[in-house]
Fold these 2 entries.
Entry 1:
Amino acid sequence: MEVRTFRAPTMQEALALVERELGPDAAVLHTREVRRHRLFGLWQGRREIEVTASAGVNVPSRLPPRPVPQAPEPPPAVVPRQLEGQLSRLHTMVEELCRRSCTGPGEELPDGLFRLFTDLIEADLDEDEARSLVHRVRREAPDSEIDDPLLLKARVARLLESEIRVTGPIQIVPGSCRLVALVGPTGVGKTTTIAKLAANYRLKEKRHVGLITVDTYRIAAVEQLRTYADIIDLPMQVVSSPREMRPAVERLRGMDLILMDTAGRSPRDEIKIKELKAFLSEAGVDEVHLVLSAVSGAKALEQTAARFATAGTTSLILTKLDEATSLGQVLPLIHASGLPLSYLTNGQNVPDDIETAEAGRLARLILAIEPATRS
Ligand SMILES: Nc1nc2c(ncn2[C@@H]2O[C@H](COP(=O)(O)OP(=O)(O)OP(=O)(O)O)[C@@H](O)[C@H]2O)c(=O)[nH]1
Ligand SMILES: [Mg+2]
């Protein structure tokens, strides 16, 4: 039985290809929308329809019947035959280049592994990382798995899981006060995450939680945290210079947990990051969580983590997982920063949209095996 895959910019064009290549009785087995990735910079993430079809299989087509057009349709764009042929050859060449980019010269990559490679690239994994994972899977997977995309992906998930370090939730030690600061670029979700953590520790775990804000640049920022402090009924201290830090911490000494909110700093502003460090060391913080948005690109994430390292970062919080279209870009950050992950956030709702980071879950999110928001 010959199963073939066709891609075209629209469903109509993809079906026309199926019909032309396999005949009018071909069965459509599967359709999906795919993103043509930035293979060698030739394409910029264009969306396409992929149709898997076969002429030699007697199953009902999974394709819904084509709708009857309501109004007369405009005549289809006529692609000159010659151009169509050239495009198709170009497509084959790029696919071949892509296959070769994953193997050595003259080496054949089985279809299942090739599909895995393109899936990893689509998930925004770095090309070298994707290649290395495919080769590890090729070495380790039994032959029976090589054609099963789900088993292959599950295997990659386990490999990634072993590379991701996590801290578990903030540990409260009875009788002592844990001081935790959140730092990071502007607008990544520091204050919202503080509110989520504070509400969970106070309302669900019944701990004594205090808040400190050193964001005195903007009145609105102080008020934002104060609103949460009022709703959750938490003591809050506002600190506007490193000198004020110790007395503020002292006033909250009886707490189990002090969460410290800080002003968003541009990773390029070294002076502001040094200033931040002065506040943190005056406070004698136990943990500094670097908050980063999963919507950022790989380079920005890596560079930001490097810049904030001077502030003594101890772990990573990834926010806005619900908004990210892919997550492979967080892998270089995890590798380069060497920091373990503490929390993941996946929405604006306080206190629900936060979870303690788990390596297996993040690996599956990266590979799009499961969604960021659990219903
Ligand atoms: N979709 C989504 N939005 C989030 C998430 N976390 C925070 N936000 C939103 O991001 C925006 C900025 O959040 P803040 O908590 O004010 O960010 P910040 O890092 O404190 O910002 P600055 O103090 O200005 O540096 C708000 O609209 C939040 O509701 C998340 O996990 N997912
Ligand atoms: Mg803030």
Note: Confidence is low (pLDDT under 50) at residues 39-43.
Entry 2:
Amino acid sequence: MSFAQLAAVAGFYGRFTPSFSRIGFQARRLGWRHIPWRFSGQRWLVTGASAGIGRAIARAAAEGGAEVVAVARASARLEQIAVGLAPEPAARLTTLPADLSLVSGTAALLEMLTSEGRPFDVLINNAGVLLNEHRMTEEGHEASFVVNLLSHYQLTEGLLAAGTLANGATLVNMSSGGMYSVPLGLEGLDVTDPARHVGKLAYARHKRAQVALTGDWQRRLSEREMAVYVMHPGWVRTEGVRQSLPVFWRVQRPILRQPIEGADTALWLCATRPVPRADVIWFDRKPRPVHLFSQTRQAGCSVEALREFLQRQLDAAA
Ligand SMILES: NC(=O)c1ccc[n+]([C@@H]2O[C@H](COP(=O)([O-])OP(=O)(O)OC[C@H]3O[C@@H](n4cnc5c(N)ncnc54)[C@H](OP(=O)(O)O)[C@@H]3O)[C@@H](O)[C@H]2O)c1
């Protein structure tokens, strides 16, 4: 590593570690009012709920009285999600397996959810992956593009079209501080050429696009009194981080947040429903800027072009 690269890495960790790690969470929580999570009478849909942050959100919501549908791929982990909960919250948690890396997997999930005809009060689009190795799906897309972005768009639009998101519903999209490094653009969202795949860059682009989509949903859905938020959980100690960022994991592990700490802002947003804003990302219970670096302000496309691009992928798969 050159001196310049070393300086860049040191600058990055020096700037973000105090805030994004557990240190930031513990310091900020000193100023927070204790809010018991009360979600009785609500129906929640949480994706990526078999592990990490999504699991912590699903369990806390069920403990707060919500009826929770927890989605992830079929696995022992998904079946174990209620282990350790008291009988009543455990009974409020149901699991629904779906592979969100496939348009057909999300379509099948939508079919199940909308045919029940029971609306959700909360949707947490949390499923996300950082794939260092290039992986194509059988439908011809790069897998992380579909899990991180296309499935969120497909699920949300599908639930809205079917009336399965109640008027007044809360929608939380789980983004990442990784998005601070890139501008919005269509280029590089769905990288089908393995030679051009850089997992971290693809992930950052998907997470930036989520921020733009959230602003668009917020503007479109406010007349239905829906509250739409995008958030960043900080750096959280999860299996996803261990697998996708092994060096970061080794260095930062002692100060990574616990999953329930990463889940905190999502739960707080749903419990308090602050006035939504189209131009912020929520982090540790506060709205934060969506740009930290001047070079990301110049978007490579409009949000309308992003929506059209995502819709074209769905139409092509239909
Ligand atoms: N951890 C962090 O520091 C951090 C920081 C910033 C943002 N985030 C974001 O927070 C979210 C959760 O991250 P995490 O760290 O908790 O991740 P994680 O521990 O790896 O959990 C990811 C969840 O997504 C599910 N998932 C993955 N592929 C799927 C697929 N094809 N279909 C359905 N579900 C799938 C996984 O379930 P199965 O594998 O069982 O299907 C699991 O439940 C992600 O969106 C991530 O980008 C995390």
Note: The radius of gyration is 19 Å.
